UniProtKB/TrEMBL annotation:
EC number: 4.2.1.17
Pfam (any one): ECH_1
Family to which this protein belongs: Belongs to the enoyl-CoA hydratase/isomerase family.
Keywords, ordered alphabetically: Lipid metabolism, Lyase
Gene Ontology MF terms in the entry: enoyl-CoA hydratase activity
Enzyme class: lyase
GO biological process: fatty acid beta-oxidation
Name this protein carries in UniProt: enoyl-CoA hydratase
Catalysed transformations (reactions): a 4-saturated-(3S)-3-hydroxyacyl-CoA = a (3E)-enoyl-CoA + H2O; a (3S)-3-hydroxyacyl-CoA = a (2E)-enoyl-CoA + H2O
């Protein structure tokens, strides 16, 4: 296990056996509230993980038992001048973009509260895993702003425009069972597992497959969504061409015919 700390509050761990990379929020005293410093370090950590060829899947998680991330650090914001607030906004946008732009499949492990910008971090991942403690929501209008980390765009793509409008306009918090039913969570951990444990299990299953194939599939899914069908199929074909003549594809076919587990070159 390789581990690197980014500032005081962000850790990246890469398990060289499972090929899963974890980005861990570790600001327990503030329930991982998104300060300028935390956002900057998260951006840096995700950039490094994106470039790490050993990591096939990313898991965004937390060390706090009761919170994934409670959103913006309102105590910090209360003391910011308008100019400082604009600079803070730029740093936060960079953090959300860094998560959204991870090239490998990304899973958010949402145990406890994921509110406002915290839930937007989860929405920036491909899959969201919760557990019975999960509470999610976008309450920004209750403090005079709007979701600004992608929530107004990512949530409708997940649950539909009308449902997203209801959730954003009411600013309500949604508990685990309803969140799973509405599609705000993709998987709910069972049997006493935490969201983090279930997310790592899922990540390990995904990471067993071709890293070239996984990245190309994510690129096709992300790029093609929202396009008309014909344009989307062109996106898919371009992604297919990147894998069809790759070393991973040759190894996958050979392993299938030889009835063995593939040893992916990742090229």
């Amino acid at each position: 296990m390789r581990e690197r700390r980014y500032g005081e509050w962000v850790v990246v761990r890469v398990d060289e056996e499972s090929r899963v990379g974890e980005v861990v929020l570790d600001r327990p005293g503030a329930m991982n509230a998104l300060s300028t410093e935390l956002a900057a370090r998260l951006t840096e950590a995700c950039g490094d993980l994106a470039a790490d060829r050993e990591a096939r899947v990313a898991v965004l998680t937390s060390t706090h038992e009761r919170a994934f991330c409670v959103g913006a650090d309102l105590k910090e914001r209360n003391g910011l001048s308008d100019a400082a607030f604009r600079r803070h906004r730029t740093v936060l946008r960079g953090a959300f973009a860094a998560v959204l732009d991870l090239p490998m499949p990304a899973i958010a492990a949402v145990g406890g509260y994921a509110l406002g910008g915290g839930y937007e971090l989860a929405l920036s991942c491909d899959l969201i895993v919760g557990d019975p403690s999960s509470v999610v929501g976008l309450p920004e209008v209750s403090v005079g702003v709007i979701p600004g980390g992608g929530g107004t765009q990512l949530l409708p793509r997940r649950v539909g425009a009308a449902r997203a409008a209801e959730l954003i306009f009411t600013a309500r918090r949604v508990h685990a069972a309803e969140a799973r039913e509405l599609g705000l969570l993709d998987l709910l951990a069972e049997g006493g597992q935490s969201a983090g444990e279930a997310a790592l299990d899922l990540a390990a299953r995904i990471a067993a497959h071709s890293p070239v194939g996984l990245r190309a599939a994510k690129r096709a899914l992300r790029t093609g969504f929202g396009l008309d069908l014909r344009a989307g199929l062109e996106v898919e074909d371009a992604a297919w061409r990147t894998v069809a003549f790759s070393a991973d594809r040759a190894e996958g076919v050979a392993a299938f015919n030889e009835k063995r587990r593939p040893e992916w070159p990742g090229e």
